[in-house]
Design goal:
The strands form 2 sheets. Strands 6-7-8-9-11-10 form a 6-stranded mixed beta sheet, with helices on both faces. Strands 2-1-3-4-5 form a 5-stranded parallel beta sheet. The chain is built from 11 helices and 11 strands. It has 2 domains: 189 residues, inorganic pyrophosphatase (n-terminal core); 120 residues, Diaminopimelate Epimerase, Chain A, domain 1 (Roll), CATH 3.10.310. It is α/β, with parallel strands linked by helices. The protein binds guanosine-5'-monophosphate and manganese (II) ion.
């Protein structure tokens, strides 16, 4: 791919590269950043991994070089590579970088970079990073392999989503050859829950409300629940996925009370496009996973609004 070569030329000529993923990063955002970091360091580049969010989610602290991620942008740098950011504002900076390479797999990507490497078919941004590294014969070391594998594992819901095809398993297999340890990564990601998180899940699941003949379900997380259980916002991460697991549910929606409003997380199972709903509320995402923050604190009001949108989205079933 021509763009992979063009991007690598820019990297070769850069003195100081900043890697930046979206605010409130997930496994793909940080895994793609740290995967790219490990390789660019190995070839002798000066690299800073930036993320505007601090503190970062603790469940990702096993990613190699996690503690190198900083929320301070260097005073001088000549190239930024954004990873997993559908729009420029998701990076969380004001000023445009001197040059920007935009690597992403969101269908809603706005092509805000100077070079845009967008593949909505990729299961994770880490998959595009992998293809980029291969196309330029770059050395994928153990640290890079671990981060990229973790990114793919999280963004495919542990290889469960429609995005998973033969290529995804080929890449996973190559990453294992390069040193990623699947059991280790799975344990780090999924077997380090805190008791607080489990107590929070119990409270949240208690609020599940089914609607639309069981095809949709809402779940709520209030600030009070977090305070009582001692859980953090990061602990809410998988709640909406579990609600989608209910057999007839096509669309699951979590409403979480944040400082600036109610954050909605939407998931669909087979056919509904939830990114359309998120975009309506100035958010974004993918067909099967999307989100937005609504500047309003009334759970019932938001649920009533969303019920109408969800009914519309459910009509897509043919
Ligand atoms: P989650 O519900 O886990 O926060 O996010 C699911 C997907 O929607 C992710 O791909 C995430 O990047 C995207 N997303 C979540 N919240 C927002 C938002 O406020 N704005 C945009 N543009 N995308 C979001
Ligand atoms: Mn992603």
């Amino acid at each position: 791919m021509k763009k992979f070569k063009e991007a690598f030329e820019k990297i070769k000529n850069a003195n100081h590269i900043v890697l930046a993923a979206h605010k409130n990063p997930d496994g793909d955002a940080l895994g793609s950043s740290l995967g790219m970091y490990a390789v660019l360091k190995e070839i002798g580049k000066r690299v800073t991994v930036f993320n505007v969010t601090s503190p970062l989610p603790k469940y990702l602290d096993f990613l190699p070089n996690f503690n190198k991620v900083t929320n301070t942008l260097p005073k001088e740098y000549d190239l930024m590579i954004s990873l997993d950011c559908a729009s420029f504002d998701r990076i969380g900076i004001e000023k445009r970088p001197p040059f920007l390479i935009n690597i992403d797999h969101h269908i809603s990507n706005t092509n805000y970079g100077d070079i845009n490497i967008i593949n909505p078919k990729a299961a994770a941004t880490a998959q595009i990073v992998f293809e980029f590294l291969k196309a330029n014969s770059l050395p994928i070391n153990k640290d890079a392999a671990t981060s990229l594998y973790a990114a793919i594992l999280t963004d495919t819901g542990s290889f469960q989503y429609d995005s998973v095809d033969e290529r995804v398993f080929q890449i996973a297999s190559e990453l294992i050859k390069h040193g990623a340890n699947p059991a280790y990564v799975a344990k780090m990601l999924f077997q380090r829950d805190s008791l607080s998180r489990l107590r929070l899940l119990a409270k949240a699941y208690d609020t599940i409300e089914m609607c639309c003949d069981g095809k949709a379900a809402f779940v709520e997380v209030t600030k009070e629940m977090l305070e009582i259980t001692g859980a953090t916002r990061d602990d809410t991460d998988t709640i909406v996925n579990s609600v989608r697991n209910i057999e007839p549910v096509e669309i699951a929606c979590m409403l979480r009370e944040d400082e600036d409003g109610i954050k909605i997380s939407l998931r669909s199972k087979n056919y509904a496009d939830v990114s359309k709903i998120a975009v309506k509320y100035k958010g974004g995402g993918h067909i099967r996973a999307a989100g937005a923050t609504i500047k309003e604190f009334d759970f019932e009001k938001i649920k009533n609004m969303l019920k109408e949108d969800i009914k519309e989205a459910l009509k897509e079933d043919k």
